Each structure stands twice: as structure tokens, then as C-alpha cells.
Amino acid sequence: MGAPIVIVGAGQSGLQVAESLRSEGWEGGILLLGEEAVPPYHRPPLSKAYLAGKAEEAQLFIRSPEALAKKRIDFRPGSRVAALDIARQTLTLADGSQLDYEGLALATGARNRALPLPGAELDGVFGLRTLDDTRRIAEALAATEAVVVIGGGFIGLEFAAVAAAQGKRVTVLEAAERLMARAVPPALSDFYLALHRAHGVRVELGVSVAAVLGEQGRAHGVRCADGREFEAGLVVAGIGVLPNDELAAAAGIACDRGILVDACSRTSAPNVVASGDCTVTRLEDGSLRRLESVQAAVEQGKSAAAALLGRERPFSARPWFWSDQYEVKLQMAGLAAGADRSVLRGSQEAHAFSLFHYRGEQLLAVDSLNQPQVHMLARRMLDAGRSPTPAQAADSGFELNTVLATPAPAMSS
Ligand SMILES: Cc1cc2nc3c(=O)[nH]c(=O)nc-3n(C[C@H](O)[C@H](O)[C@H](O)COP(=O)(O)OP(=O)(O)OC[C@H]3O[C@@H](n4cnc5c(N)ncnc54)[C@H](O)[C@@H]3O)c2cc1C
């Protein structure tokens, strides 16, 4: 039997590559190498239901080792790949052993950006990326009354909501002038600011954290550059992630703040594809795009598997994402970048509304809060390239599905 297809990284995307290889008809060996000690798991609940105690650990796992074995996927946990040799089609594991591959998929994900601060090494300071991080955070949360969250992005705010719901004193320190600034429009930042404050969370914007304070190796607070101090038995940093592209870069594969892939998830090296959080795509205007989401990890994983089998399956699905904070479910469809106006549908006061983002008359994206039906319709409309007019979108009485039911307008030349 020939060499297997090897997948480096047993997260959401690596698993998808493995399963898609089988469903696309690859009969040869599939080796799924994961650095973590556990089977592939869902990361989103780590900062949501699982941390809140509303989901069991067993529910996190996407596939059991037995289910993988049934599909003849040779899953090896605790296996870190240390080096690649693209010319010889071999890789070296951290224990020094070597393996040949027929095709290679890199799905190494991302890691948390480290806090560049004095005191970051103290006990009680955490990032939230892995199951292991979450177990340790849950333990520390139970043992403290005061929590500081550094970074008001999705993960920091989801954690803040869980901690506040447990009656903890929570302070969120955000360097930017608004929350989740990278991902949501100002109107949603304002909504979430009010939501967190209504739940008793202290949110400070435009602050720069200077140091984590501690004694005898344990964190007890945070000092800001303006001299203010906040008490904390637990400090959680959510200041973004860095793609794990070092393995690829060291092997000579083109990287630029992520492993560069084309629309079919191919890298610059023959027989090597990459997918998920470790990748970056260059857009037509030369800018780089990295989507850190389950949807991207899955869709790109499918495209990567097809590419390994010599098939072109461009990864083009429209992005979608979600976030749970308190009783509010945010669901985002499409990308709002480039929008020149937004219209509101529903009621902000009732915490049930959607923002439709347009460029001209063209719908680009829809952010829905507690309106799952609108979100699902938005995805279908965006996929079909259909737009309600802004006036229709703003009118809660207007049935959005009629936009999908009517024939598409003739293309103007
Ligand atoms: C707390 C949290 C909440 C999130 N919430 C949402 C959400 O609500 N919605 C959403 O869409 N997305 C969410 N995300 C993002 C989403 O989980 C990621 O985009 C997705 O998991 C990416 O999958 P991946 O397989 O590319 O990477 P990962 O899941 O990071 O998996 C990569 C794996 O590769 C392993 N690895 C790395 N290097 C090596 C090596 N050299 N050898 C062997 N193994 C290696 C890593 O240990 C890791 O297990 C969340 C993420 C986190 C952390």
C-alpha cells in the first residue's frame, strides 16, 4: 500500500478534510495527527454553554475515536508535527519519527496572541482557546469573585457574560473605542455595551492595560496605563489569535500572516493543501482575508480534500458566524465591509432585530439578534444574490421569503 494522505491538526477543519476524503472516494490511508490529547471537538461552546455549565464535556466531541476508526481514519492524538520536507514528501514528529505522505493537508489552526505585559505569566491569567484552557478557567472562576477580561471581542465578551451570570464582579477592558470593533458595525457595539452594563459588567473603552499585578506568583489585579487598578482573582485575555503557519513557512510554503491558499485551498507546494484558521486568502484587490469561523473551517476543509484528489471545488460559500451573550443570539451572514448604509428591522428594545447592510441597492450582509428566521432567509438571499429593497427590509410586515419566491430580475448588460 502507498503512503497515506496526512492531515496535520485534528480540529474542526482537519477532521473535515479527513471525512471529505472518504466521502469523495479516497480509498487509501488517512492519517489524522493532532497535538492535543483529545478527539476533535467544537470550540464555540468553550466560551458559551460549556463554560456556563449548560453542556457536558462529552457533547463537545465531534467524533469519537471509534467513529473515526470506522471510517478508516487513523487518528493519532498527542502527535505534534515538528517539521516538513516538501521535496521528499516526509514529515517529522516531535518524537523524531518520520512519515511519508502521498498528499498533505495543513489544518494547524491558530493560537491565542500572548499578552505582551509584565505579569502575564502569573497564575490566574488565561487565554481561552482549548478545552484544557476552559477546564482551568472554570476552576479559577469558581474560586474567585472578581474577574478582569482584557479585550472586548467575541470571546472576551462571551466569557464576561458567563461570569456575570454567575454573579461575579466583571470588568472588561478594551483598547478600542467600541466593542467587537473588528467584526460588527458601531450600532451593534453600542447595543452590546448597553447589554453588558445592564448585566452589571463594568466596561471601560479606550484603555491600555499596563501590567497584571500579583503576589507570590498569583494574579490579583490589573493596572492600566492611566494608573487605575482593577481587582481580579482571574484575568482572561481575548486579544486575538495568530495563525499557526510556522511549520509551513519553515518548509518553504508561501505564508503571509497565515498559509497562503487559493480559492481551492491549494498552497504554493505541490500536493499540499491548507484549510481553516491557519490560512489566508489574497483577494482581487490584493488584501488578505482570514476567516476565523467554523463555517470557513468546514467549507475550506471540503475544498482542500477535493484539491488533494485533483478536483477543483472553490471555497466560495458566504460567511456566517454566531455569538451567544446572555439571552441574545447574534447571527451574522455575509460581510458588511464596503456597505454604505444599514437599515433596521425589528425592535432593539425587545432585543429582536436585524441590521441589513447595503452597498447601493445590493444586500451585502445581515446581522440578526434573536431573529433566527431572518438569519436563515438572509443566508439564502445572499447565496442567491437576491436583495429586498432597503424599504422592504425595514418593514417588519414585509415577508422576506417573497424575495426568494419571485423570479430573478433579468441581468442588465
Ligand atoms: C472559545 C472560542 C469560541 C469560538 N466561537 C465561535 C463561534 O461562535 N462561531 C464560529 O463560527 N467560530 C467560533 N470560534 C472559532 C472556531 O472555533 C475556529 O474558527 C475553528 O475551530 C477553526 O478550526 P481549525 O480546525 O482551523 O483550527 P483549530 O480548531 O484551532 O484546530 C487546529 C488543531 O491543530 C493542532 N495543531 C497545531 N499545530 C500542530 C502540529 N504542528 N502538529 C499537530 N497538531 C497541530 C492544534 O493543537 C489544534 O488542535 C471560536 C473559537 C474559540 C476558541
Automatic annotation (TrEMBL):
Cellular component GO terms, alphabetical: cytoplasm
InterPro entries xref list: FAD-oxidoreductase/Apoptosis, FAD/NAD-bd_sf, FAD/NAD-binding_dom, FAD/NAD-linked_Rdtase_dimer_sf, Reductase_C
Keyword Flavoprotein found: yes
Stretches assigned to the FAD/NAD(P)-binding domain: 5-301
Superkingdom to which the source organism belongs: Bacteria
Keyword Lipid biosynthesis: no
Occurrences of domain Reductase C-terminal (ranges): 320-403
Entry GO MF terms: dioxygenase activity; oxidoreductase activity, acting on NAD(P)H
UniProt keywords, alphabetically: Dioxygenase, FAD, Flavoprotein, Oxidoreductase
Cofactor dependency: FAD
Classification via PANTHER family: APOPTOSIS-INDUCING FACTOR 1, RIESKE DOMAIN-CONTAINING PROTEIN-RELATED
Official protein name in the record: 3-phenylpropionate/trans-cinnamate dioxygenase ferredoxin reductase subunit
